[in-house]
Amino acid sequence: MASENVAPGEFELISRFFKGPAEQFAGTALKHPKAMGIGDDGAVLAPLQSGEQLVMAMDTMVESRHYFPDMDPAALGHKCLAVNLSDLAAMGAKPLGFTLSLAIREPRESWLEDFSKGLLGLAQQWDCTLLGGDTVRVPLESAETISVAALGTVPTGMAIMRSGAREGDDLWVSGELGDPMIALTQDHRDTKLCWPQPRVALGLALRDIAHAAIDISDGLASELAHLMRASSAASSTNLVARVRLEALIDCLGPRLSSRLAAGESPRDLCRIAASGGDEYELLFAAPAEHRSAVEGLAKRLALPLHCIGRVTQSPDESAFSWPVIWEDAQACPLPASEWPKAGFEHF
Ligand code: ADP
Ligand code: MG
Fold this sequence. Notes:
This protein is an alpha+beta fold. 33% of the residues lie in helices and 22% in strands. The strands form 2 sheets. Strands 6-8-5-9-7-10 form a 6-stranded mixed sheet. The structure holds adenosine-5'-diphosphate (ADP) and magnesium ion (MG). The site of magnesium ion has 3 residues, from loops.
């Protein structure tokens, strides 16, 4: 955790906004007499329970690329951790702790205070302890960058991979889709865009239910393709997802639903829902015998879980280079030009 720059006030900043508040609710990760959080060259964690594996995830947020410079700092703090907890959730992992790298142009006290509150509020909710980090100054003309690396735990062998889907599995997606994408192009004010709720409880429950899971932060269509490709490769079969575009109607968030009520084409709205990113929902594949378990889970978590299609063997290896077939009401595949594909890619 090398610091390139010892700006005046660096240590006071760390102590006031991160070390002090983090110590107020040090959780499971530090519950051991020989454990140590922020303050030394590295954190020393409590030993894992026997039979546990660590899961690690990391996400970087770049100013003007992943967030608007005027974003509410509390929401930004929340979101920097939430996107990582969403990755842990997709693995079926229980959050344990995280580190924070903050590359900022200048320390702004009220910004730091709000950022820290948003960040540590979510951390406390999931017993995910801030264990350390790095704080550096970037040139005035540079974008600010915030990276979080998060640690979670799973019972050995129980992590849910994106590669585990099998022929015959149902495909499920949590929550509602599309509104963050609409908000991005309009007012930027959307609860799911600014304060995404990682589906941690769902991920934990899916350990015993799902064959495969992925979080759909880059959009349902592209993440589903990743899941199918990984599962095909792992099973040496040519798997294809058949998704009923109409099933997505039930997944539309409030903004898209009101456009549906105003008469816009359901097919167009479903395409938006399937293509839009900034979704922190889980997509998972589960065998049909677990259908009632999934429905019970939706009730227990008060979280809608929508069955949107199923995993099949490709009827013809050469026919489908894209591993997702979108079907309309008559179970006809949509023409290739209408398949939602796009997901966000940096390069
Ligand atoms: P070193 O130079 O020894 O790597 P630093 O001076 O970078 O340590 O940081 C001092 C302590 O503060 C370390 O324990 C580090 O993990 C922690 N730290 C630095 N920045 C942050 C931050 N943004 N959030 C939480 N902890 C931080
Ligand atoms: Mg250092």
